[in-house]
UniProtKB/TrEMBL annotation:
A GO biological process held by the record: centrosome duplication
Protein name: SAC3 domain containing 1
InterPro entries in alphabetical order: PCI_dom (IPR000717), SAC3/GANP/THP3 (IPR045107), SAC3/GANP/THP3_conserved (IPR005062)
Record's compositionally biased regions (Basic and acidic residues): 38-55
Native species: Rhinolophus ferrumequinum
Residue ranges the record marks as coiled coil: none
Stretches the record annotates as Disordered: 38-70
Annotated ranges, domain PCI: 157-322
GO CC terms of this entry: centrosome; nucleus; spindle
Length: 359
């Protein structure tokens, strides 16, 4: 559809009033959206908490009116609310938070696609939404296999976020201020993918030479080559958002490292490696996680806290343990909130003040 046919959103709330009324009647309010302190048979929506939910566009259905679409400034404020309020809730599981945030961010992307917006302001919204989504998905960690969150659906939504953002980059003259950072996130999230590597290598030379992209290419090369020491050394140096993007590959990288060690060291009597060495090599969160990882792969420990590589004992069952990734991801928050970290990394990358983009 040509740009001149697209409307401009005029809804200045996170959720249009008509949707709030409808979902109240249908009892489809999430508990994060209910007005506190109100009692009764039917929960009431809090206009300050209700966020527009995703609704798949139906074929032949009329385009939403401008009053149902939030302009870019409201979409950005909505993303900020999700990062500062919902993502930090202490009374909810990480799976519940991730499911809610992913759905509402999907609605943000749809609102943006259905209206006229400049490439620059669209990119800022899409970058913020993707950063928050990566963070809440990464926080799931070992909880991803439990609760209401669907890991496959969340992965698809992250890829959808990357697709929307990269199309936005392709439409404008560019480069956008944060394009190199998010191109690096794309490669890190798709570590080992030939298609992703090819797309990044097709970027203009100025983007490929940016530090964030060069680092992502180095991580990808170490992952492909099976250079465990170099890979985890690089992963330790990544900032928070890049660490969130690559977290989904950490379990697979650790399993591959264990498999190679097993092939190299396994003997009938069993060669050994100190457990502390395994903790350092694989950037694990401590001896307990190292014990669990080794035992999950059939590698016993002796009385001196050494991993014993016995021939024929190494096994792989199911997906590799996700782990908590406190060393590689969680510790990089540094006691700050998600919103504070995203804003701080924006300023570091651009060497200036990005607070205006969150205003």
């Amino acid at each position: 559809m040509p740009d001149y046919e697209l409307p401009v959103g005029t809804c200045w709330e996170m959720c249009p009033a008509a949707e709030r009324v409808r979902r109240e009647k249908e009892c489809r309010l999430h508990r994060f959206e209910v007005a506190p302190g109100l009692r009764g048979d039917r929960p009431r929506a809090d206009p300050q908490r209700a966020v527009k939910e995703y609704s798949r566009p139906a074929a032949g259905k009329a385009q939403p009116s401008p009053s149902q679409l939030r302009p870019p400034s409201v979409l950005l404020a909505t993303v900020r609310y999700l990062a500062s309020e919902v993502a930090e809730r202490a009374d909810a599981s990480r799976t519940e938070v991730a499911t809610f945030v992913a759905d509402r961010l999907r609605a943000v992307r749809l609102d943006l696609a259905l209206q006229r917006a400049g490439d620059s302001e669209a990119a800022v919204v899409l970058e913020a939404a993707l950063a928050v989504l990566l963070a809440v998905v990464a926080r799931l960690g070992s909880d991803a296999a439990r609760g209401p969150a669907d890991p496959v659906l969340l992965q698809a939504q992250v890829q959808e976020g990357f697709g929307s953002l990269r199309r936005c980059y392709a439409q404008g003259p560019g480069p956008h201020p944060r394009q190199s950072a998010f191109q690096s996130l794309f490669l890190l999230y798709n570590l080992g993918s030939v298609e992703a590597l090819h797309e990044v290598l097709q970027l203009p030379a100025a983007l490929r030479s940016c530090p964030a992209v060069r680092t992502a290419l180095s991580v990808d090369a170490a992952f492909r080559e099976g250079n465990t020491a170099r890979l985890f050394r690089l992963l330790r140096t990544l900032p928070f958002l890049q660490s969130c993007a690559v977290q989904c590959h950490v379990g697979h990288a650790r399993r591959r490292a264990l498999a190679r060690l097993s092939r190299a060291l396994s003997t009938p009597k069993g060669q050994t490696l100190p457990l502390g060495f395994m903790v350092h090599l694989l950037a694990l969160d401590g001896p307990e996680e190292a014990r669990d990882l080794c035992q999950a792969h059939g590698l016993p420990l002796d009385g001196q806290e050494r991993v014993v590589f016995l021939r024929g004992r190494y096994i792989e069952k199911g997906l590799p343990p996700a782990g908590t990734c406190e060393v590689l991801v969680g510790s990089k928050l540094g006691g700050r909130t998600l919103e504070e970290v995203v804003m701080a990394e924006e300023e570091e990358e651009e060497g200036g003040d990005r607070s205006k983009s969150w205003a």
